Structures are given as C-alpha cells and as structure tokens.
Amino acid sequence: MSGHPGNRGEHVVGEHVVIVGASLTGLHAAEALRGGGFAGRVTLVGAEPHPPYDRPSLSKRVLAGRMSADSTGLPQRQDLDAHWRLGNAAVALDRDTKTLTLDDGTALGFDKLLIATGTRARRWPDTAEAALTGVLSIRTRDDALELQARLAARPRRVLVIGAGFVGSEVASVCRELDLDVTVVERSAAPLAGALGQWAGAAAGRLQRGHGVDLRTETSVLALEGDADGRLRRVRLSDGDVLDVDVAVVALGAVRNVEWLAGSGLAIDARGVQCDPFCRAVDTDGRPCDDILVAGDVACWPHPLYEGLLAVEHWDNAVRQARVAATTILHGAVRAHTALPTFWSNQFGVNIKVVGVPGRADQVAVLQGSVERAAFVAAYGRGGRIIGALAVNTPRALDAYAEMISSRMSFPPDLNAADAPDPIRVLDLAVPAAG
Amino acid sequence: MRVMVDLARCQSYGQCVFAAPEIFEISGREVLEYDSAPSDEWRLHLERARAACPVQAITIGPAAGPGKDDGQPSTVRPAADSMGVLR
Ligand SMILES: Cc1cc2nc3c(=O)[nH]c(=O)nc-3n(C[C@H](O)[C@H](O)[C@H](O)COP(=O)(O)OP(=O)(O)OC[C@H]3O[C@@H](n4cnc5c(N)ncnc54)[C@H](O)[C@@H]3O)c2cc1C
Ligand code: SF4
Fold first, then answer.
1. Any residues with Cβ below 6 Å from ligand 2, and which?
2. Is the CB of residue A405 less than 8 Å from the CB of residue A354?
3. In this complex, is the C-beta atom of B22 within 8 Å of any C-beta atom belonging to chain A?
4. What local confidence, expressed as pLDDT, does residue A51 receive?
5. In the prediction, which pLDDT does B69 show?
6. Which of A33, A130, A259, A308 is the most exposed place for a label (fewest CB within 10 A)?
7. Ligand of minimum distance to the alpha carbon of A119
C-alpha cells in the first residue's frame, strides 16, 4: 500500500513529518529539521493545550511564585512553518499504513514519525487517597499552578512523598517560602537512586540544615481526608500521624507509551527502544527507518554503558531530538553518543551531574570539600570512571566528562590543587545495570 | 520575547549578568536565575548577553507555538486524501 503522498494532488509538498509530543523534544526536532533545510510539512501533535514550555522551572521558580506559568513558554529559534495540533493526543499508530489516530478520531498520515511523548508523574497508588483535594504531583504547567496556589495559601504543613530530584526541589521551595515540610523517603537517603548512598547522605544533611523534616526509611501508610474529601492527615510507618493540607507525590515518572500498544515496537517500562540513530526498534529487533524516538520516552544503547539508557534529562531531550532530525534528513549517519548531563538547583546549591553515577560501585571526592558544600565527586564502576557530581563547582565538570568519555581508570590520578588529602574511595552498593 | 538558558551547559560564569543585569542574576553561590519573558526594551542587552556567554548557552526568540494565522489553510497544513487520512 502506498502511503507516500508524492502524487496525491496539489496540497502535497514534499514529505510529511509528524511529531507526537509538543514539548522540549518535539520543538527541538522541528527546529533542527527546518534548520537542516527540510522543506516538507511538519505537524506537531501535543496532548497538552500549551505550546512547548520549560518544565525544570516548574518545580523551582514557578512554584516559588517568582515566575509566572506563562513565562515558561520556550523560545523558538526560527520560523517553524509547522502545523500545530495542541490539545490532541495520539491514540494509535498503524505502521503498515503509516497512519496515526488522534483522540478526536482524525486519521493523520505521515512519511516520518517522531515519538516524543515523554513521561508523566507516577500517581499515588491508592486511587481514593489520590483523589483527595490537596494531593498533587508536578509534571505540567497546570500542576505547577495549582501547587503554587496551594503553597501561597500557606498550608499548615506540606508532605512530600519521595526524595528524588523533583521532591527535593519542592521541599527546597517550601523552606524558601518558610513553610513546614516533611519529606518521606523509603530508601536511606534523598537522591540516592541517582547519586548513590554517600551523596544522598550529604543531600540529607543539606535538607535537614535547611529545616526540612526529612524521614528516610519511612513510608506513607495512609493519606486521610475529611468529610469534604480534603487531605487532613498522613499516617507514617514510623508511627507518627501528621496534620498536612498538601501532599506532593514525587514518586518518579512513567513513560507515555500506552498509545503505542499493538504497534509492534519494542516497548517496556524504560520506554520505546531505539538504536543509536533514534530509529525505533520493532519487537523483532529491527530498526524502523520511518519511526524515530527521542527524549524522556526513549531508551537506547550507549557505547559507554551496559544495556539500555533511559534518562529524564533536559539536555538529552535536546540532543537526541537533533540526532533524530539528522536521521530523518540524512539517514543513519550521526549516532547519539552524548554523555548524560543533568543539573538541579535546590537549597541554594548548584548540582551538576555527568555520566551515570547511579550505576557506580565506588565514589571518591576528588576536589573541594563536602563540609564547605563545594566539591566534585567521581564515580567508578569496575575500575573505570563512569560519572561525576559537581556541587557548586560547575566549571570543573567538563574535565570529568572528558575522563568518562575516554574510559579513564578509577580513581583518576588528577593531582588537583584542591584535592582532599588523602583521597578516600568509598564502596557503594552495586546497582543492577539497566 | 522569550529567553532560555541551557543550564546543563551553563557554567555560571556570570558574563550574561554583566551584560544584562535586568535579566540575569547569580543567586546563592553558583545558581543562575533569569527572567525568561523580559520586555522588548532589553533586547539589546540580551543580544549582548547572548554574545558574551562563553558556552553559547543562551537562546532568544519569540514564544514557540502556533502563530496568529494558525488554523488558516497554509502550505503546511495537511490535506485529506481519498481515504480521509490527513497527509
Ligand atoms: C518538575 C520538573 C523538573 C525538572 N527539572 C529538571 C532539571 O532541573 N534538570 C534537567 O535536566 N531536567 C529536568 N526535568 C526533566 C526535563 O523537563 C525533561 O527531560 C524534558 O521535559 C523532556 O522533554 P520531552 O519533550 O522528551 O518530554 P515531555 O517534556 O514529558 O513532553 C512530552 C509531551 O508529550 C505529550 N504527550 C504525551 N502523550 C501524548 C500523546 N499520546 N499524544 C500527543 N501528545 C502526547 C505530553 O503531554 C507532553 O507535553 C524536570 C522535569 C520536571 C517535570
Ligand atoms: S554567561 Fe553563559 S555560562 Fe555564564 S552564567 Fe550566563 S548563561 Fe551561564
């Protein structure tokens, strides 16, 4: 069956690229297509009513009330001459006919498809408790607006469930607003999943130093509401019952892949699998030339790391979008091999991460001092450096990225002027490769 | 007008702060903050900041999204084929 539009009449000019997901990845892919001279049609399909906006500021300045949700709209570098279908979700993909079905019943044909549907916040598992007024998560502009309004109304206490990056940033904003906040984390330390136990312990001291009631190795047993369905109390596994008006569920993200059920693409909890050129891989392991994947929804093989990588990083979304656009324009000529890079700002501290510290079996501070909250820690696995964490030392990180890319042995011999003496290498619990 | 700083790349050098103090500031020790929707009167300062950034982390442009004329038939709007599929 010919899905090619080339001879379908006067409306048809060149190829039709459809991008599903009109956020960071979708925008940057469209820009890269036009920047690369693509003259065909570009359609952006986005489930949210908003044009692309900046999510990282949601849990930071927007929540603090220092930035309006409207100002989060992202700039575009050039005229995209695109057709936008905002407020429209894709609900099915038929690869044989190269057609998408949208939630309003529209059938949308494509020559090339970019899957950029990202993730959504994992919901609180108890549906009745999740439905209580005051139980929120933060992934979208609308989420951030609602939470910001609730914080501005000065609740008695805010509960944050989960001490990953987003949960920790929310706790930071609560303290900035001088609100009482309890953070409940099932593991032994905040940020431990991404940065390991040792850095997690340092993050825990930072949080407590800023007045956060941080409860690690603790879980939420129940969220309790009043007769009007408003959150009133939380029951914790440590036996405490706290009065809270707001609970922020920060239990991580779930990939938006349900709409691809039955498409024959290789998909699991890590996302939609693709090859280094961002081509989606089908369940037989074959890459599809016409279906690309990028951003938070993608998982892919990286030359430096075992298995597949799946990250939720702003930087990866932008870079992978550009690789996908290159593949659309020129075929499989440019592999996505960038090192994962991430930043977070919380409690007045600049955190930058490169590589994959979460997979390390050892860590060592190589520069600066943890006590003075300015240091670089390197992470190793199997005797080579695989990641680095820079706290309030953003300019140091490029050198570590170089070491990671060149597979330098761990701990690297730096002789840095500000190195601690002696350098102590700590063992970390070995996580499974992804 | 919208501004976006690639904070993965930004090294908190602060050159942008010197060029456009109305828009950029370093808060805490190393945290760059900025006004992402400044008024057009700062355009010149912004351009200066963008040029001064040693790692080219600053993007300036109009807000992304459908333009005023979206929804009108245009060269980029898909058209239905004989099967009713927008192509
Ligand atoms: C609160 C918060 C703070 C963050 N802070 C940082 C940070 O400090 N540093 C950092 O590096 N990263 C941070 N991130 C991560 C960063 O925002 C993401 O990596 C980035 O948004 C990924 O972009 P994306 O376009 O791939 O996916 P998303 O931004 O998730 O966009 C996907 C879009 O697709 C839409 N969609 C989903 N399903 C469909 C469908 N079936 N049809 C049509 N559209 C659909 C969604 O509605 C959404 O708009 C943060 C994220 C959040 C939520
Ligand atoms: S000049 Fe560039 S690198 Fe320096 S603080 Fe500004 S944006 Fe960051």
1. B 5, 10-16, 24, 32, 52-53, 55, 57-58
2. no
3. no
4. 97
5. 44
6. A130
7. 1
HSE-up (13 A, CA, CB side) for residue A249: 24
The radius of gyration computed from the CA coordinates of chain B, to the nearest angstrom, equals: 19
Q: Which residues pair with A236 in a beta bridge?
A: A220
Burial of B53 (0-12, 13-18, 19+ CB in 10 A): buried
Task: Take residue A121 and report the two structure tokens written for it.
Answer: 């916040």
The 10s digit of each residue's pLDDT in A371-400 is 999 999 999 999 999 999 999 999 999 999
Mean pLDDT of A210-221: 98
DSSP letters for A193-257? HHHHHHHHHHHHHHHHHTT-EEE-S--EEEEEE-TTSBEEEEEETTS-EEE-SEEEE---EEE--
Query: Does residue A21 have a pLDDT over 50?
Result: yes
- Check: CB of residue A432 under 8 Å from CB of residue A306: no
Residue contacts between A and B (CB atoms, under 8 Å): 140
Each residue's pLDDT tens digit, A108-151: 999 999 999 999 999 999 999 999 999 999 999 999 999 999 99
In which residue are the tokens 């009631």 written? A213
Render pLDDT for A291-330 as a digit per residue (tens, 0 to 9): 999 999 999 999 999 999 999 999 999 999 999 999 999 9
Q: What letter would DSSP give residue A73?
A: B
Chain B, nearest residue to A78 by Cα: B61
pLDDT in tens, A247-257: 999 999 999 99
Rounded to the nearest whole angstrom, what is the distance from the C-alpha of residue B50 to the centroid of ligand 2? 9
> Which helix (H) or strand (E) element contains residue A192?
helix A192-209
> Do A315 and B8 make contact, defined as CB atoms within 8 angstroms?
yes
Closest chain A residue to the Cα of B60, Cα to Cα: A75
Q: Which residue has the least CA distance to atom 3 on ligand 2?
A: B10
Could you tell me the two tokens for A122? 């994992």
CA of B24, closest atom in ligand 2: 6
**Structure tokens given for A193:** 């999943």
Which residues fall within 8 angstroms of residue A409, CB to CB, at 6 or more apart?
A: A383, A384, A385
Domain B2-77 falls in which CATH fold?
A: Alpha-Beta Plaits (3.30.70)
Strand order of the β-sheet with A279-281 is A83-86, A41-46, A16-20, A112-115, A287-293, A279-281
Ligand 2 centroid from CA A418, angstroms: 24
DSSP string, A122-187: PPPS-HHHHTSBTEE--SSHHHHHHHHHHHHT--S-EEEE--SHHHHHHHHHHHHTT--EEEE-SS
Q: With 0-12 CB in 10 A as exposed, 13-18 as middle and 19+ as buried, what is A400?
A: buried
User: Structure tokens of A431?
Assistant: 């996580």
Calculate the alpha carbon distances from A164 to A185, A196, A354, A365, A396 in Å. 9, 11, 17, 22, 24
